[in-house]
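[User] Could I get a sequence and structure tokens?

[Assistant]
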Amino acid sequence: MLLRNITLQDFGAYRGKQFLDLTTTPGKPIVLIGGLNGCGKTTLLDAIQLVLYGARARCSGRGSRPYESYLRESINRQADPAAGAGISLEFSITVDGEERIYKLHRSWKVSGKTLNEFTSVFINDKIDFVAGQNWPDYVEDLLPLEVASLFFFDGEKIESLADPDRAANVIESAVQSLLGVSTIEQLRSDLLGLQRRHKLSNEDQKVIDHIHELQASYADAEDQVDVAYQKKGQKQAELDGAKNKLAEADHAFETEGGDLYRRQTALETERKEVGKQLAATQDALRHKVAAGPLPLLLLGTQITAVQEQAERERTTAADSQVVDVLDQRDQWIMELLTDALPKKDRDAIAKQLDDDRKNRRNNSSAERTLNFSDGALSKISALSELLEHERARAKEVLAQAAKQAKRLESIDRLLGSVPDEEAITKRLQQRDRAMREAAMLEAEVNAAAEHYAANLQRQERLKNELERAHQGRVRSIEKAEDSARLITYTNRSRDTLDKFGDALLKRHINRLEVAVLDSLTRLMRKSGLIRNLQIDTDKFRLTLIGDDGEPIDPGRLSAGERQLLAISLLWGLARVAGNWLPSVIDTPLGRLDSKHREHLVDRYFPHASHQVLLLSTDEEIDEPLLTRLKPSIAHMYTLVHDDQEFTTSVEPGYWWTGGTSHVA
């Protein structure tokens, strides 16, 4: 098998159409594809498996998600989901000495809530509808999925194959499918089928008639299962249509004001309540707030003037009392200064004291227009504080009234938008009819599903009865001479096949031991670490033998050595099988030191297969390793990622090659 080219259309990070020529020639089996982490190397490996195996593909990016969800998320985020994504893979296979060129195209797109997938197959440039419709079975004949997993792998993740149990499963699967051992078991099953068919022709007529009746009933049960399945699907389609109609009716009902129509009574009740609250607030404004001292705020200027006059009169009264006291004090001061100061100084001081008393007498003689009592000023101040409190209270009540009025206005607008009862009633009736129809169809779908399940149970029961009847028939005809002879010969043949199968298995295991050990010896830096290895033909467990002749626990190996052991196992399987499949290796040198990397580059990659696709970072196949690998390279590509658009494109050439797409 040879991969010729692959085209990605808006798949994953790959935007638009990206094409890679994968053809190789003798002596140049390698296609080197470089990309930094996150650029789409693993996506490219997933694309090859996805286009070949569809829902059964073991894509690393899928996880446990349903296949449909994985396909939806695999459409490039910049692309139109209605246009979808696609993968085309062209490969060739030689059958009976003739080369056949296959072009497999798988695409998918989103239509509403539905995802549609399409598969087409061209053989030698002619479309093959039979192959396209039966591709899952067809590809198993070309490249079984279990076999492909041994050739399409992640270089870092295969380290798990170093585990004896995991390796045993891989060895058993490869030996059975890749090396043809399973054919022996198929022959044994065919001989058993021959025995059963021969026994049927020699059965007692009564037993034969019973078996025929069971076969007819089983065939009828199969037909009934098909009919029930189709009916279930038909009812499900009708239910989906009814749900769409219900959604449309719901949308029309809401668009024409259905929600307001349902809320009309509640809105009217709320309007009455808000109206009562507003009336109560307005009543409080009139009879509680406005009926108190609040109107005195209109006399704010006058009250302020009265308060200022009261303050002045209080000050004037105080000054009048002080002047008399000052006369006596000044006379006493001057008597004290008679002997202490000259007359000139005493006269100056006396003049200053006299001026001070005159000013105070002038102030105390100011006109007292209102003649307030002593406590008048405190009463006027208390009135001012009361009026400020009433002002704040009035603002609060007015704000509450404004809020209630605004809510009342909003409710009135909503009530004004309530649709006409006759028009909305029509929409409501349409909606109710759609709901009844959907409920009826849902019940029919459930009934159809139960009917289908019952037919499946009947089919399974008849199948078991038919099997028991066949088993009883086998026991009853063993007395017949022809049947006994046939059973004898077929049993001998099956025994012979058992022996041949054991011999074939041992031969393959011996060849595999030699091939894996040789591969490991070529790749390992520590040449004396592993002297031999053995594979158990019963449980297919791999045992490593050290230089001292004792088994080596794989856990003692480093991560890089375990990776080399896993690669040697896969390489050995490929060599024993004849290297007829391409190898696709993602992250080939992840955990290896420089010496092991050189061994892989020099001894493994150029000889792993007739076609080797390496998906590498710049730190794996770096410039020195590229120089060593270049004579074996047919094509080189670089995956260039746009960090702004989050998309990847394929460019010819590799780092340090100046963009050259082909290497001489």
Notes: Confidence is low (pLDDT under 50) at residues 659-664. The CA atoms of residues 58 and 149 lie 8 Å apart. The radius of gyration is 50 Å.
